[in-house]
Design goal:
With 231 residues, the protein is an alpha+beta fold. It has three helices and twelve strands; from the N terminus they run ααββββββαββββββ. It has a twelve-stranded mixed β-sheet with strand order 7-8-9-10-11-1-2-3-4-5-6-12.
Length: 231
């Protein structure tokens, strides 16, 4: 195989993995109404758990820049990526990757689309099937997130308030999830998968609960694009 093609294939495969991991967790935070018990007279925010509760209770839309890294079990950096993210409750999200390859990962409420711009190829999967195949399975409409995760700890580090969760669903591919907040704003996600690899996502320029463009989460298939999946 041509080395250049091999390199691009590796990057696409890795981006797909970390993109899918990130978007499932990110949209899951917005797709569910609560993680812990909601209390109108909630106490003063003082921990990652309480910041997460506030985020889930109050956030309807989110827009941000992101930088993403994948690290192996030896602490070696495997891949980096960056782009923008838009989320809208329920079940709509758009991860637009700029580097190292242009990709769009979009859920329109019905289907999940992964569009590789350079290859002119799109993969479509019914959103329910895709979510059922993910480790957290957080998008089920009849179960609360707290039934899927156990709270492990709260702590402060690197100027952030953190909450660590672990999935309690048998067969999950993730060992734990770290969510970091800075002054109440979502700042960082860290996921450790079943192989011990770590995906780290940092957010910046975060905008919450602003109106989003109509049609943002509709995938308009460009001419000449091959579609894999669907009917």
């Amino acid at each position: 195989m041509d080395p250049g093609k091999c390199w691009h294939h590796h990057h696409r495969r890795t981006i797909n993995k970390i993109a899918y991991s990130a978007l499932v967790l990110g949209v899951s935070l917005l797709a569910c109404d609560y993680l812990f018990s909601q209390d109108v007279n909630r106490p003063v925010i003082s921990s990652g758990e309480q910041y997460l509760q506030q985020f889930l209770n109050e956030t309807r839309t989110l827009q941000a820049e992101f930088d993403q890294e994948l690290w192996d079990t030896e602490g070696q950096l495997i891949e980096v990526a960056s782009g923008t993210i838009s989320l809208e409750r329920p079940n709509r999200f758009l991860w637009r990757y700029r580097d190292p390859l242009e990709q769009i990962v979009l859920a329109d409420g019905i289907n999940l689309w992964i569009y590789d711009i350079e290859l002119a190829q799109a993969t479509v999967t019914p959103l329910n099937d895709a979510i059922q195949a993910t480790p957290a399975m957080l998008l089920s409409g009849d179960e609360a997130v707290r039934d899927r995760f156990s709270l492990l700890e709260n702590f402060s580090a690197d100027g952030l308030s953190w909450v660590r969760l672990e999935p309690n669903v048998p067969g999950s591919d993730f060992r734990s999830v770290l969510i970091g907040f800075k002054d109440g704003e979502l700042a960082h996600l860290e996921l450790i998968d079943g192989l011990g690899q770590t995906t780290r996502i940092g957010f910046s320029e975060v905008l919450v609960n602003l109106p989003l463009r109509v049609g943002l989460f509709s995938f308009d298939l460009p001419d000449g694009v091959d579609v894999i999946g669907g009917e």
